[in-house]
């Protein structure tokens, strides 16, 4: 995929992995050196950062807060300890700087992984429900009614009741207009219902 066609999301994904691998390599070097300094054999010294970093990545990927806190704490302690072994203790400012800078790789690894999580999106506002106008409601009712000459008095009576519910006090003349019949016919239907 060319750089021009890469989506921002794809670019973030690539940069995320580059950053995580770089910070893991930085952290692994410090953890490996620490394991050697305390006297672990080379094979065990290789396994120390592998186990610690695998735990940290698994905790981050699962999003388990308690394990993330423990894994980050262990990784930071290991980094700080690895660098303090070689620190110039006669210069307190350098010791403090060493502590702060040593914490950067595990923290960057954790935060960069969080970039993979999609940002919460607000729920879309539901479309407001518009009540149909009287004319629209009547048109719907008329569409359900058989055509004039094929409908029964009962069907006409039910239609009239529904229209009267929409427009209480509607005149027989207006009902007749809607049905395509006379006001007298509407009156007769109303009396027999």
Structural key phrases:
single chain; 193 residues; mainly alpha; 2 domains
**End-to-end separation:** 75 Å
Rg is 39 Å
Question: What overall geometry do the principal axes of the alpha carbons give?
Answer: rod-shaped
Strand content: under 5%
Helix content: over 70%
| Element pattern in H and E | HHHHHHHHH
Mean pLDDT: 84
Query: What is the count of structural domains?
Result: 2
User: What is the total tally of β strands?
Assistant: 0
What's the main sheet like?
A: none
Number of discrete helical segments: 9
Which class do the helix and strand fractions yield? mainly alpha
Give an overview in words.
This protein has nine helices and no strands. With 193 residues, it is mainly α. The chain folds into two domains: 8-114, no CATH class; 134-192, no CATH class. α1 runs antiparallel to α5 (104-114) and α2 (42-62) runs antiparallel to α3. The chain is rod-shaped and about 110 Å long. The mean pLDDT is 84.
Blueprint (SSEs and pairs):
Elements: H1 8-37, H2 42-62, H3 65-84, H4 92-102, H5 104-114, H6 134-144, H7 153-166, H8 172-179, H9 183-192
Helix pairs in contact: 1-2, 1-3, 1-5, 2-3, 2-5, 3-4, 3-5, 6-7, 8-9
Summarize the structure.
The chain has 193 residues and is an all-alpha fold.
């Amino acid at each position: 995929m060319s750089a021009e066609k890469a989506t921002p999301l794809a670019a973030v994904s690539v940069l995320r992995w580059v950053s995580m691998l770089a910070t893991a390599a930085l952290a692994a070097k410090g953890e490996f050196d620490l394991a050697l300094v305390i006297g672990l054999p080379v094979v065990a010294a290789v396994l120390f950062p592998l186990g610690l970093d695998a735990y940290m990545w698994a905790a981050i990927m699962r999003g388990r807060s308690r394990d993330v806190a423990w894994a980050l704490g262990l990784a930071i302690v290991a980094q700080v300890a690895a660098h303090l072994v070689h620190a110039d203790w006669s210069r307190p400012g350098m010791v403090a700087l060493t502590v702060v800078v040593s914490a950067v790789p595990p923290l960057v690894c954790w935060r960069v992984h969080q970039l993979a999580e999609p940002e919460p999106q607000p729920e879309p506002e539901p479309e407001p429900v518009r009540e149909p106008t009287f004319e629209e409601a009547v048109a719907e009712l008329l569409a359900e009614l058989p055509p004039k000459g094929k409908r029964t008095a009962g069907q006409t009576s039910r239609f009239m009741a529904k229209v009267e519910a929409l427009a209480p006090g509607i005149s027989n003349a207006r009902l007749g207009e809607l049905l395509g019949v006379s006001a007298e016919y509407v009156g007769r239907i109303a009396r027999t219902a």
